[in-house]
Design a protein that fits this description.
Structural class: alpha/beta
Radius of gyration: 25 Å
Helix content: 40-55%
Number of helices: 7
Distance between the termini: 35 Å
Largest sheet: 5 strands, parallel
Number of strands: 5
Strand content: 5-15%
């Protein structure tokens, strides 16, 4: 489930966005709401949101001000009534992924949300590949350590696995000579 912050000073617009998301992406989103820029920033600093649907013109802090005040950048879709090139350009400079005009065409809105979901999938796939690669490198390091491997290769594997300083100084492994070689590799990998 993804957490989405809908930041818009119009309650009607926030409700429409929630209805559109629930209708096509039932159960995939948990909703947070802000009726102005200050509330949006406070919520984003307190709660982690993966998606921010942001209006530009709000009382107090504008949507652009919110973008400048963010510490971490969620996936941002601007949804505004203002067709102003300066707003669009500044929003894109801040890392906004989509800029839609109100009222959005449903297809256009859903396409922007689909882009967010596709981006999340790519991030998850990359994370899975990184974890799998780390497991392969860890097993190779265990083999190198067990069988008195090449010092340069061991140092390279330690660097790739980001094992530095005192963690890379020494390891002691007691091996039962009658144990299965697979168990020994598992023990060394765990160490």
């Amino acid at each position: 489930m993804y957490r989405v912050l809908i930041a818009d000073d119009e309650l009607r617009d926030r409700n429409i966005i929630k209805i559109l998301l629930e209708r096509s992406y039932a159960g995939q989103f948990q909703f947070l709401e802000a009726e102005n820029g200050q509330q949006a920033l406070e919520l984003l600093n307190r709660e982690r949101a993966q998606l921010l649907i942001l209006d530009i013109n709000m009382p107090g802090l504008s949507g652009i001000d919110v973008l400048h005040g963010l510490k971490g950048m969620p996936y941002v879709i601007i949804l505004t009534a203002y067709d102003n090139f300066e707003y669009t350009r500044e929003a894109l400079r801040c890392g906004v992924r989509d800029y839609l005009l109100k009222p959005p065409l449903r297809e256009e809105f859903y396409r922007a949300v689909d882009h967010f979901l596709e981006d999340c999938e790519r991030v998850q796939e990359n994370l899975t590949l990184q974890i799998q690669s780390r497991e392969v490198f860890t097993r190779d390091l265990a083999r190198q350590l067990m069988y008195f491997g090449d010092t340069k290769k061991i140092r390279g594997l330690l660097d790739v696995l980001d094992i530095t300083g005192q963690y890379a100084l020494c390891g002691l492994l007691h091996i039962d000579l009658e144990a299965d070689q697979g168990c020994v590799l598992d023990e060394a990998e765990e160490l």
